[in-house]
Amino acid sequence: MTIDYIKLSPTGNITILVTTQVPRQHHVEIASALLHRVGGEQVGFIEHPFGTDARLQMMGGEFCGNATMSLCAILARERNLNEPTNFVVEVSGCTAPVPCTIRRDGDGWLGAVRMPLPRQISTVELDTDGGPLRVPLVEMPGIAHLILPLGLGAMQLRHRLPEWNRRIRADALGALAWNEATSTIDPLVYVPSTGTIMREHGCGSGSAAVGCWLSERSMADIHADIRQPGGVITVDARRAGPTLASLSITGKVAVLEEGQVAI
After folding, report:
1. What is the C-alpha separation between 37 and 122, in angstroms, rounded?
2. HEC string of the chain?
3. N or C, fewer C-beta in 10 Å, the chain?
4. Which stretches in the chain have pLDDT values below 50?
5. How many CA atoms lie within 13 A of 76 on its CB side?
């Protein structure tokens, strides 16, 4: 089978989007081959939509804000759009359509994704090498994120993430090493269905999770630039009194290459 793909960089979170229609039972196998041969942090499959502009199925059925932004950049490029354009797309892990505004930004694109609101923000006790640790857990549709103190170490996180997720039972579980002094995250994401643990250079849903948690903690609106290895993602969390009412992320997308791989 020949697979057509587009490789993009949404804030350094190298994303491969497959444009060939592929049966879902082959997604994991093809995603694994693409990650190995093309290089990237995640793979999504563009599918026929049901009444929206496009549909995206991520490799493990998870939700991804950066991949959503990348899909809309592809739509804008295909249509040669230069003015800000609103798209509505379907994305795995999310039951409601996801709005995204995209506009040209130099050689790339600037996208703003309306993120699904968290299902729950709580604290959870984790077993770590240094003993029990209570940390925030932000459960979003299609992915959950742990907001962790600095110093746990990548090796421990890679070992512990599958164990922690057996209790949390998320479609995907992110471990966000959070530095509040510099508003910086270092994301590691575990996808159980593919068995992958990836250090992501940029994490849209992780940035959104931090914004939700900061808003809940302060009971105030949050507009924050969340720094990560690949750059900055801006998060806006708005409240209606005691309730989180809207959530969005904004970031940049660059198209890196288009190609074909025989699998």
Report:
1. 39
2. CEEEEEEEEECCCCEEEECCCCCHHHHHHHHHHHHHHCCCCEEEEEECCCCCCEEEEECCCCCCHHHHHHHHHHHHHHCCCCCCEEEEEEECCCCCCEEEEEEEECCEEEEEEECCCCCEEEEEEEEECCEEEEEEEEEECCEEEEEECCCCCHHHHHHHHHHHHHHHCCCCEEEEEEECCCCEEEEEEEECCCCEEEECCCCHHHHHHHHHHHHHHHCCCEEEEEEECCEEEEEEEEEECCEEEEEEEEEEEEEEEEEEEEC
3. N
4. none
5. 28
Contact assessment for residue 200 and residue 41, using Cβ atoms and an 8 Å cutoff: yes
pLDDT of residue 20: 97
**pLDDT tens string 111-140:** 999 999 999 999 999 999 999 999 999 999
Structural domains in the chain, sorted by start:
2-116+252-262 (3.10.310.10), 120-248 (3.10.310.10)
Output the CA angle 13-10-38, nearest 5 degrees.
55
241-254 per-position pLDDT tens digit = 999 999 999 999 99
pTM of the model: 0.94
Strands 231-240 and 196-199 turn out to be unpaired
Nearest to 164 by CA among 151, 186, 148, 150: 148
Q: Which two tokens stand for residue 124?
A: 């959870």
